[in-house]
């Protein structure tokens, strides 16, 4: 079935460092891909999305490109801030788009 | 703020009890989804309702049930609660029944603790 794999955390970076969180997926159809973020003690927020191959989603300095050839959707940010400390979930829509399938989440801590 | 509201924020109850979690979708959204987030299982899809009808089912236990009302709010009922049901329960909503461009927006969650 459809699934998402993402790099294990926790990831600890210094402020202004470059961030990459790897995400790969397995899907039988043409899913939409998402990154959701969960700040401490809060719910899930949609960070960015891409609905077809080669689409680039971007928001708040974060970017991810839908790579069908490598079945990947890696999250990147050029310069992280302390306020980016959170858990990041890569996700895709199921084959019939009726549910979101989440990866296990990657915890990011940014230290001053 | 996603526009999805969930009540209560926290719920503490005992094993064997029954609880009801409530969700109000974003204005205009027809679909409601329920998810469970636990330490061992991660984020798991439970069930989807679209315009009052059940549309998709995931890893939902038989002790759990849900419904969507004519005003489109939804309730998740959990009965015969066990310690392992302690988790964060999220509701999400989307405009349509689920299409390639549909996006799910999540509420803040209800944290259930079963003692």
Helix share, percent of chain B: under 10%
Q: Give a count of the beta strands of chain B, DSSP E runs of length 2 or more.
A: 11
Number of helices of chain B: 0
Parts with pLDDT < 50 across at least 5 consecutive residues of chain B:
none
User: Which structural class should the secondary elements of chain B be placed in?
Assistant: mainly beta
Helix content of chain A: under 10%
- How would you sum up the major sheet of chain B? 7 strands, mixed
General description of the model:
The complex is a heterodimer of chains A (112) and B (115). Chain A has 112 residues and is mainly beta. Chain A is 0% helix and 50% strand. Chain A has no helices and 12 strands. Chain A has strands at 3-6, 11-14, 19-21, 23-26, 33-38, 44-50, 56-59, 62-65, 75-77, 86-93, 100-102, 106-111. In chain A, the strands form 3 sheets. In chain A, strands 2, 5, 6, 10, 11 and 12 form a 6-stranded mixed β-sheet that branches. Chain A has a 4-stranded antiparallel β-sheet with strand order 3-9-8-7, with no helix packed on it. Chain A has a two-stranded antiparallel sheet with strand order 1-4. In chain A, strand 10 and strand 11 form a beta hairpin. The relative contact order of chain A is 0.34. The mean pLDDT of chain A is 92. With 115 residues, chain B is mainly β. Helices cover 0% and strands 52% of the residues of chain B. Chain B has no helices and 11 strands. In chain B, strands 2, 4, 5, 6, 9, 10 and 11 form a 7-stranded mixed β-sheet that branches. A 4-stranded antiparallel β-sheet of chain B has the order 1-3-8-7, with no helix packed on it. In chain B, a hairpin with a 3-residue loop joins strand 4 and strand 5. The mean pLDDT of chain B is 92. At the A-B interface, strand 6 and strand 11 of A face strand 5 and strand 10 of B.
């Amino acid at each position: 079935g459809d699934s998402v794999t993402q790099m294990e955390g926790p990831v600890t970076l210094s402020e202004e460092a470059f961030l990459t969180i790897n995400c790969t997926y397995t899907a039988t159809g043409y899913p939409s891909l998402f990154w959701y973020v969960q700040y401490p003690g809060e719910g899930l927020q949609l960070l960015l999305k891409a609905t077809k191959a080669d689409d680039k989603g971007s928001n708040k300095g974060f970017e991810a490109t839908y790579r069908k050839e490598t079945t990947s959707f890696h999250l990147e940010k050029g310069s992280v801030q302390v306020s980016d400390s959170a858990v990041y979930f890569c996700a895709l829509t199921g084959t019939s788009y009726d549910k979101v399938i989440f990866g296990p989440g990657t915890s990011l801590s940014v230290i001053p | 703020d996603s526009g999805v509201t969930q009540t209560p924020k926290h719920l503490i109850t005992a094993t064997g009890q029954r609880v009801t979690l409530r969700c109000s979708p974003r204005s205009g959204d027809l679909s409601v989804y329920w998810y469970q987030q636990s330490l061992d299982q991660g984020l798991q899809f439970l069930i989807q309702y679209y315009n009052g009808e059940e549309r998709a089912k995931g890893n939902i236990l038989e002790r759990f049930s849900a419904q969507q009302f004519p005003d489109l709010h939804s309730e998740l009922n959990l009965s015969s609660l066990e310690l392992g049901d302690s988790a964060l329960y999220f509701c999400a909503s989307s405009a349509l029944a689920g299409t390639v461009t549909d996006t799910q927006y999540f509420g803040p969650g209800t944290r259930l603790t079963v003692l």
